[in-house]
Amino acid sequence: MSVPRFWRKQIARYNLVGTHCKKCDEYFYPPRNMCPACRREGEIEDFKFSGKGEVVTYTVIHTAAEGFENQTPYVLAIIKLEEGPSLTSQIICEPEEVSIGMKVKPVFRKLGQGGERGMIYYGTKFVPDK
Amino acid sequence: MSVGIVSYGAYVPRYRIKIEDIARVWGDDADILRSGLMVNEKAVPDVDEDAATIAVEAARAAVTRSDIDAQRIGAVYTGSESHPYAVKPTSTIVAEATGATPVLTAADFEFACKAGTAAVQACMGLVSSGMIDLGLAIGSDVAQGAPEDALEYTAAAGGVAFVIGNKESELAAIIEDTYSFTTDTPDFWRREGMPYPEHGGRFTGEPGYFKHVTNAAKGLMAKIDTKPEDYDYAVFHQPNGKFPSRVAKMLGFSKEQIKPGLVVPRLGNTYSGSCMMGIAATLDQAKPGDRIFATAFGSGAGGDAFSITVTDKIEEIRDKAPKVEELLENPIYMDYAQYARHKGKIKIA
């Protein structure tokens, strides 16, 4: 990932900031600048999600992409936030701990880094909410 | 005008390694080490944790505990000796992730194990002078110990954040005064670009830790005319269990006074977070009116002493964020090979 590409999305990734359409009451994460339903009638505002949600589905990664080799096996899941939108994230737990419908909450972690010399990408991952 | 702790937050990773698992690898006697160091196990960071993520978790816990409007924070200072970047502040990451940006000053502090308390003192000055409303002072480390070095048995991970303010109605604990004792003592260092610190070995305790802790502690008690008996609790920097126990005895504090804050046997040395973790653990159980005496030590070397009085406000905020005892519960134990992988001691090409 390029430095500017991450940088522009930094706030959204750090603090789960998305958007909300005041007209149709729909929430978006990642943030959308325009409501796909209300189009130009939509009223978009920034919205900070609580980060509470539940696991819709998950997979356990054993053969990781470059840069994630030292984390295997790890859990990757689709999480539905309380406010509605779904997102893909790693869940920090043992593979046997995760289940569909499990409640999760956000934590601040390293998402990746540009090798030994590049920037470190920080952001939100999730843990079981016991 | 009073100055003190408006809120506090702590964070400890969930992984631990036991002393015997490290001793087994290097052929050392675990029983001798455990009784000599008075440390049984130490906290190990997850593969995606570093001093910045730990600082953010501690800072968020502090903001949550007192339900603070993060926009009131006018300074963020993070003390660490394991800042993830050599150039690029950890404190800007913390400020952004706690919602304190953009109107604030921020910088990273470094003074071995007392960088966190140096940040507390800087924030005390800024709020007392009226330059800022609230200050966020953090001590956070993923401490490094070279394989087979004595430090490997204790170098741990964890962090603590204090929100410092001066509005009396908001203070959970009043910091009555602080006193520092500093000299140029090369007892421990890490050169630029080196992965692990070096130290002067077993003879650095007296001219380093004991000299600076006792002088800072005695200096503060003389300055404000207090005695060890005036305090309900005491916390001293805890690189292991033995040093704070011994220095407490030397100064005239009892075992009971240091007990609630002595978290090192189950946690290890969290470096910049060490003394602040002891204060946080003590605040977790102190009653309004209780007095806490604390002295941090940083190699290089210096001691920062604090005299603290707990207020009624503590009861209101205490249960709103995880207590140190809760963070120490239910750890996941790992063996040396897993620990080496987590700490990046094994490089995958």
Characterize the structure shown.
The complex is a heterodimer of chains A (130) and B (349). With 130 residues, chain A is mostly beta strands. Chain A has one domain. Chain A is 10% helix and 43% strand. Chain A has one helix and eight strands; from the N terminus they run αββββββββ. In chain A, the strands form two sheets. Chain A has a five-stranded antiparallel sheet with strand order 6-5-4-7-8. The N and C termini of chain A lie far apart (33 Å). Helix content of chain B is 34%, strand content 25%. Chain B has a nine-stranded mixed sheet with strand order 5-4-6-7-1-8-13-12-11, with helices on both faces. In chain B, strands 3-2-14 form a three-stranded mixed sheet. Chain B is of the alpha/beta class and 349 residues long. Chain B has one domain: Peroxisomal Thiolase, Chain A, domain 1 (3-Layer(aba) Sandwich). In chain B, helix 1 crosses helix 2 and helix 6 crosses helix 7. Chain B has 13 helices and 14 strands. The interface between A and B is medium-sized, with 17 and 20 residues.
Rounded Rg of chain A:
16 Å
Shape of chain A: globular
Order of helices and strands of chain A: HEEEEEEEE
State the domain count of chain B: 1
Largest interface (CB < 8 Å):
A-B, 17 and 20 residues
In the CATH classification, which architecture of chain B applies? 3-Layer(aba) Sandwich
**Order of strands across the main sheet of chain A:** 6-5-4-7-8
The DSSP helix count of chain A reads: 1
- Beta-strand level of the residues of chain B, as a percent range? 25-35%
Largest sheet of chain B: 9 strands, mixed
Tally of helical runs of chain B: 13
- What structural class do helix, strand and pairing data of chain A support? mainly beta
The counted number of beta strands of chain B is 14
**What is the C-level CATH assignment of chain B?**
Alpha Beta
Computed over alpha carbons, the radius of gyration of chain B is: 19 Å
Domain ChsH2 rubredoxin-like zinc ribbon (chain A): 11-41
Pfam families (chain A): OB_ChsH2_C, zf-ChsH2
Protein name (chain A): Transcriptional regulator
Organism (chain A): Methanolobus profundi
